[in-house]
Amino acid sequence: MSKIALVTVLFNSDNVLDGFFKSLSIQNFKDYHLYIVDNTPNPTTDALIENLSIKYSLTCYSHLKNDKNEGVAKGNNQGILFSLKEGFEYTLLLNNDIEFYQEDLIKSMYNYATNNHETLLIPKIVYFDSGKIWMAGGIIQHYKGTNIHVGDSEEDSSKFDKVKYFNYAPTCFMLIKNSIFASIGLMDEKYFVYYDDFDFIYRAGKMGEKVCYLPFIKIHHKVSSSTGGPESAFSIYYSNRNRIYFLRKNYSGVSFAIPIIVTFTTRIIKYLFYNKNNRQKLIEGIRDGLKM
What we know:
Number of strands: 12
Strand content: 15-25%
Number of helices: 9
Distance between the termini: 40 Å
């Protein structure tokens, strides 16, 4: 059985692909196949991928081109379905706006998973520019219906160097045993982008799964390189739409009432500080979330 399928989704990603390909090229683990799901295919990107594959001697990949932007959730599903069809043991979902410099990174992650029978594994992720912690595990805040990253913006230190288990983590670099998809299904494509990984991990948690954090593996993340940042019109729309959809899908009764009240209260505050365009995107996001 083949070991790992790597799945990455492109969206105007040309400026980060060199570092991404270089990171893969130094890996001493070679029993993988990379599925590049391209939501913005064009001749320039085609040529870039071909040139980088030659430059870094990376030949085990497939470039899957969508006719339009299908979103991150569906893009990941497209790669996952190939992983399942081809009989891989694990799928590694990974962003392409990342770099990593440990030659045994993927090998160490795979060995830990198989030796310890883990199904969901994440590394330590730091900000690319500062080296500060971006994510050293994640925690679901049920009263908000959101999540937080452990250690966000803190200096990397020994307190983040212990293997731990969490009930949440983003899937921007997550090794997933393929058997888990049979239990909980794939990503919910309605999310398009944002909250799709939260929903997936939430469903996994309901089945008793936990996310294993491996601090000895480190990823450098160029945060929000393709979406314009958390306060862009794009992010405001989808983050609010999907937060409401997530709550309506997964919560009920009092467990729904509290986070939806918190959500609307905090949205009112944000509305007061937004410009006209961002206010409109906020309203549209809330409206569409209530329709989903």
